[in-house]
Design brief:
alpha/beta, Rossmann fold, 5-stranded parallel beta sheet, two-stranded antiparallel sheet, 7 helices, globular
């Protein structure tokens, strides 16, 4: 089984959740693949670049297709990849998927902040993998408008975990995303965006979903 962990925005390949899933999978003889989407530079990051990187990774996967575990923006990427590369993606696990990320009206990007971003050409964002603020070019926002994960059509089975106390991703939006898709199973958790406290419960669900229980 080929499994990828797709990290979130301003995060990295060595995130807490990636490490947790990597340890659990390694116990079952599966090496988790964690591409670093910050490469070569966070400032020039775009969803298109992330998709291109993932396509390159998937081209080296097995013919049976890969499992994508995506967190936040990584969940958005997983959905877009499932729609664009259906033969190469077998199953999805989505953790607080940011299916409306950077869309007009998003509460974390009010119009005045977007206007400021456009005028300045880049804005600083706190990057958790580096432990400091790093600039991100406005091209990221422009490019994100080209991709619509919320309305993406995909048929692969998907398991979604969403916190009810998530201040970054609205659980109502994720519920709406899942409601019209019979291939999507949603679990709502009493947790925040990081879902750290729920990782043991999430792993139980993932192990069942991937048929890994001994």
């Amino acid at each position: 089984m080929t499994v990828y962990y797709l990290h979130g925005f301003a995060s990295g390949a060595k995130s807490t959740k990636g490490g947790y899933f990597g340890d659990r999978l390694l116990e079952r003889g599966i090496a988790l693949r964690c591409p670093d989407f910050n490469e070569p530079d966070f400032a020039t990051l775009t969803l298109t670049r992330m998709l291109d990187r993932l396509e390159s990774e998937l081209s080296r996967s097995t013919r049976e297709g890969a499992v994508l575990i995506g967190s936040s923006l990584g969940g958005t990427l997983a959905v877009l990849a499932a729609a664009k590369f259906p033969r190469q993606v077998k199953k999805l696990v989505l953790l607080a998927p940011a299916v409306m990320f950077a869309k007009p009206g998003h509460h974390l990007l009010p119009p005045e902040r977007v206007d400021d971003w456009r005028r300045r050409g880049a804005l600083p964002f706190f990057h958790y993998a580096y432990g400091e603020e790093r600039p991100l070019n406005y091209a990221f926002y422009e490019d994100s408008l080209r991709h619509d994960a919320f309305d993406a059509a995909f048929n692969q089975p998907a398991l979604v975990f969403q916190g009810l106390r998530d201040a970054s991703v609205d659980h109502g939006t994720v519920e709406q995303f899942a409601r019209t898709r019979p291939n999507v199973t949603l679990s709502l958790l009493d947790d925040d965006h990081q879902l750290i406290a729920s990782l043991p419960r999430i792993w139980d669900g993932v192990a069942d979903f991937l048929e890994l229980h001994e």
